[in-house]
Amino acid sequence: MVDTQQYRVPTGVGRRRAFDMGRLWTYLVGCIVFALGAYLFILSELGTDPLDVFVLGLLRHLPLTVGLGQAGVAVVCLLAVAAWTHRRPQLSPMFTFFFCGSMIDALRWLDVGRWLAFPSYLVLAVATLLCAYGSALIIMSGFGIRAMDLLAITMTSRWRWPFWAAKGTLEGLLLVSGFLLGGPLGIGTVCFLVGVDLLIQPLIYLNTRLGVRNLGLPVRPEPVPAGR
């Protein structure tokens, strides 16, 4: 049974709970699957995710790197959650950021794609599913939840929005802002925004039914009073 009490303030999910091997494996598998999906998005060459659209647009106006731009967005999300919930900013999402980024870099260095002789649209479809499933597992582990997902979970808890609506709103804002700044759009961008955001919560529900502990996002979140 999922303990809904811990979702009242999602930034500290599982913080006081012993970090057992089950959670560790859920988290690690989630990171690996997400990194593989992100790599396949790059390999498909059909468009980037909304965050990269924003960052690449930002780079047209500021002397930054992609990594610094992405890290900056993550920090803003974590500070927003901390201010909203009156908790200290979480550090574990930044570990996930660098961990997944390192795996993506390793996959690119190894040039794994040279063994994948598949059409770009098939690669994109698999990438969408892997990113959604990886995100679902990371969230379910209750550790290192990606910064934007953490902010979306907070919105879900506070406003009783569906997770897909909260995450879609955030990434939609990034997409529109990035486009206005001159960032690139593609069919892959739409697939990420629609496909990944819509699939995460159903995949969490499916995994819960299969016996995976859900420590990050309740199926039916309990609202938190606005004053708390």
Automatic annotation (TrEMBL):
InterPro entries found in the cross-reference section: YczE/YyaS-like
Keyword Cytoplasm tagged: no
Alphabetic keyword roster: Membrane, Transmembrane, Transmembrane helix
Transmembrane regions: 24-42, 62-84, 91-110, 116-140
Pfam families, per the entry: DUF6198
Protein name (database record): Membrane protein
Native source organism of the sequence: Longimycelium tulufanense
